[in-house]
Automatic annotation (TrEMBL):
The keyword Flavoprotein does not apply. It comes from Chryseobacterium polytrichastri. Residues 260-287 are annotated as: Disordered. This is SH3 domain-containing protein. The keyword Transferase does not apply. Residues 39-117 form the SH3b domain. It comes from the Bacteria. Residues 1-24 form the signal peptide. InterPro entries: SH3-like_bac-type. Keywords: Signal.
Length: 287
């Protein structure tokens, strides 16, 4: 009986170990197929300058070429191999591209591609992730969090005009991303506004909105917006009110924050606050 008991215990441990392996693999695939998932037969652009093109989908494979920022490539197919660098996880992709009047093929890591790109008024605007850093938690300095750093670049032709960086949370916040061009929101001397967003899919995972003003070939990063919620138990919401929005004021933007939390008796408790930032045509400051 003792032998049977030991055998059952061993099988139980083995089963749990197998479950953990599959869960870890599923987590890798979930993150990899999030913000860095690119469809076959679709054009994409290189974000990381001089991205290495390899002969096979491995980090130690032979380097056959390197591609500059803003180089367009065509996704041929996604490879099953996943590489993790910091909190960035992505598949390798087989791509084709034009260089020196010649069509070439090779493999690149998806984390070196743009999450999004746009063109406006002769400028190319690119959004991508650059690295992962360790940062102390603002509320609990003894806790160290892994933080992804994103960037937006603006190029005129093949010349980099300006670049800015900002935080984008942990890997859990990289399930989905967008990058869009908006109007100048009636802010003086602003040519246009860029909005980069990353989001997680699960409750309690924060999403981040990053607005960037573009004027005189310069990118100006606004305070980052963070939104998070847990079903109908709790939420934290941040939005900007620009001059062209209802309730907006000339040459200023307002950061409105709202929080809701349910108490033990299922009653909603809400808190609201706001900050006004004055815009003088070239920079902003807190009123």
């Amino acid at each position: 009986m003792r032998q049977n008991s030991n055998t059952k215990s061993l099988l139980s441990v083995l089963f749990l170990f197998i479950i953990q392996i599959f869960s870890a693999q599923e987590e890798e695939m979930t993150y990899a197929n999030g913000i860095f998932h690119f469809e076959d037969n679709k054009a994409q652009k290189i974000f990381t300058d001089w991205t290495r093109v390899r002969q096979s989908p491995k980090v130690d494979a032979q380097i056959v070429d390197s591609l500059p920022t803003n180089q367009q490539v065509l996704i041929i197919k996604q490879d099953e191999n996943i590489l993790k660098l910091g909190e960035r996880r992505s598949n390798w992709y087989k791509v084709s591209y034009q260089k020196d009047d010649k069509t070439s093929e090779g493999y690149i890591w998806g984390g070196n591609l743009c999450v999004g790109y746009r063109n406006k008024n002769g400028y190319d605007f690119l959004f991508g992730l650059t690295k992962t850093v360790n940062k102390k938690d603002k509320q609990y300095p003894s806790i160290i969090n892994s933080q992804n750093i994103a960037a937006v670049k603006v190029l005129e032709g093949n010349t980099l005009i300006d670049e800015v960086s900002f935080d984008t949370g942990s890997g859990e916040s990289l399930s989905y991303g967008t990058f869009n061009i908006e109007s100048n929101h009636k802010l003086e001397n602003v040519e246009l506004t860029l909005k980069a967003m990353v989001s997680g899919e699960a409750c309690g995972i924060a999403s981040y909105d990053q607005y960037i003003l573009f004027k005189d070939k310069k990118l100006i990063v606004l305070p980052q917006l963070m939104n998070v919620g847990d079903a109908d138990i709790y939420y934290h919401s941040e939005v900007f009110i620009f001059p062209n929005d209802k309730g907006g004021i000339p040459n200023a933007f307002i950061l409105k924050t709202e929080e809701m939390e349910r108490d033990d008796k299922d009653r909603e408790k809400k808190k609201r606050s706001s900050k006004t930032y004055l815009w003088d045509g070239s920079s902003y400051k807190l009123k």
